[in-house]
Amino acid sequence: MTVMSGTASAQAVGLLILPVLARAFAPAAFGVFQLYLSLLVFCTVAIALRIELTLLSKPDDEAHQTASTLLGLVLVVGLILSSLLALYTMIVPGLGFPIVFLGLGLIGNGFSQVASYKLIRDQHFSRLALLKVSQVLVYALVALAIAAVRPTLWGIIIADVAGRLVSGTLAVQAIRRSGPVLSRMTRIGNLAPFVRRHWELAVISLPGALANSAGAMMTPFMIFHVFGAAAAGQYGLVDRAMGVPVAMLVNAGSQVFAGRVTEQIRVGNRVGVRRMLLRVVAAGSILCGLGAAIGYAVIPFAFALAFGHSWAQAIDLARVLVFSYAIALVAGVINQTLVSLGAFRLQSAWDMGWPICIGAGWLIVLGWQLDLHAAVTLHALAVGGLGLVFVLLCVFSLRGDEGFIQPGSV
Known about the structure:
Layout: H1 2-24, H2 27-46, H3 60-91, H4 99-122, H5 125-149, H6 155-176, H7 188-197, H8 199-227, H9 229-266, H10 270-307, H11 312-333, H12 337-340, H13 344-368, H14 372-397
Helix pairs in contact: 1-5, 1-9, 2-4, 2-8, 2-9, 3-4, 4-5, 4-6, 4-9, 5-6, 8-9, 8-13, 9-11, 10-11, 11-14, 13-14
């Protein structure tokens, strides 16, 4: 509930300012922002090479040292990724925004991500909530200021970068409370041995996670390049109004769920993990199903009232996506289950299926020259189907009592 309170506050702030931003910024600005956000989310998966997941099960004497080393790794990987993207924009122009924005947001995201796993491990949920709220508050203040003074094409991106940098700074301070963050281990020369010690996550888990993220970013990326910035902006408004709240609930719920699950895993309680999983899925299915049905009915009135009549296409897209968001919320809360169980290969296999399904949908869109509505419908069907498959994989992995988890094995 502590994490949820921070998430709810952040959601409230973001939703309250969205009608103002929708009237101040053109759909193209939302389209460019959606492209930036898609690339940011994709690159964030690789920012710490997935090694941050080990913080959940590290003993006390190793957790802080690992977190400190990960901060150094975030800086190095962030600079490498930003350089590669800068090179890409020189060869294939068309991103629509300076790559430096992506680099700064990426490093801020990486610091926050490392701190989040450390705080989950230590069960300091109030500090975790502070990171979420601070990011959105700064974003809101900067975005409103730009909207009042001069709502430029990059205005929303600048506000987002500011929020992520402030959150990243607070994340470093949160880790510093356990000890100094700059140590011999954070030097560049010592990062390679650190990565080699966690090679399984970097080599096996990371590709699957990148594939999963690629599937998530593929639709906004393709909408931008196939249907244009304005259409991407219509989709982007739906993502801000519905997808972002769902994502924030998923983050809060999955972080708490992961903390509770790993606590059970450390003592070898497989039955407790299974019961917890089934309770969360059952309760989530009922609540999210009812919420989606109500949302489908009220979306036309709510969107028109909040954002104005220039966003009529967004209303159509929101009704197409509402049920897939509900399924994604249920599956997202338990998204760390396979990783926590050490089932990295099974997780990677599912992750690989994500871009394959989304990509197949876009091949149909391009081959048959379908319109935006049909493209988003195919995307919604793929997201819903993949969410159901993931829930079944988690239940399947916890069937029976064979393969009982041994304490300290994860």
